[in-house]
Amino acid sequence: MKTILHKANTRGYANFGWLKSYHTFSFAGYQNKERMSFGRLRVLNDDVVQPKMGFGTHPHQNMEIISIPISGALSHKDSINNKRSIEVDEVQVMSAGTGLTHSEFNDSKTKEVNFLQLWIIPEKENVTPYYNQKKFDPIERKNKFQILVSPKDQLVEGALPINQQGYISMIDLDKCVETEYELKNGAYFFLIEGEISVADITLNKRDAIGISEVKKVSIKANKSSKLLIIDVPMN
């Protein structure tokens, strides 16, 4: 088994006033040659956007972009005629493919938005841009893995498709619950809330561990916890 531990306080950090952003991997002004990616997972940003602020229109190309709100709601508008708001328990998938532009904005006058944004390198470039979002029932991840995203050509029922052999799952664990996760590729375990042990390594809030070269790993919740698993090819 091969592991890499990323503690929350080792992430890159940028504070622009309207935006506070923690970067698990090299991004924008944070460049660390030891933190370029985990396999095909290229970006995992933990962003907090202030009320009535947001990202202006900007381009993307040849990247699978997944956004997961943790609190608040984020408005989205893009060049392929989507104008939506994504909220807690929803997941947004955008395959940038041949290219698109979009903007993201916090419409609330009083509440911050906290969301995770993942970039996964696609297995095929220059696909037709694609957008979708879906609300997931939190009951379906209570002490069990809920698959949010899966490969387009091997789509798991109920999941959103991406152009890569990757899977994104979430699980809400009660204290003292133990389970096992079966890896399809390499898996990156990002703890949103709580305290857990993964393969006997303790993670606290916003800690993460990447694991590969093993078929399954044990997970135990030391506290009530919310865990995100990004399972992606390693090369």
TrEMBL record:
Gene3D superfamilies: Jelly Rolls (2.60.120.10)
Quercetin 2,3-dioxygenase C-terminal cupin domain residues: 148-232
Pirin N-terminal domain sequence ranges: 14-120
A GO MF label: metal ion binding
Sequence positions that bind Fe cation: 58, 60, 102, 104
Cofactor: Fe cation
Co-factor binding details: Binds 1 Fe cation per subunit.
A Pfam family recorded for this sequence: Pirin_C_2
InterPro entries: Pirin, Pirin_N_dom, Quercetinase_C, RmlC-like_jellyroll, RmlC_Cupin_sf
Keywords from the named record: Iron, Metal-binding
PANTHER family: QUERCETIN 2,3-DIOXYGENASE
Family membership noted in the UniProt record: Belongs to the pirin family.
Protein name as annotated: Pirin family protein
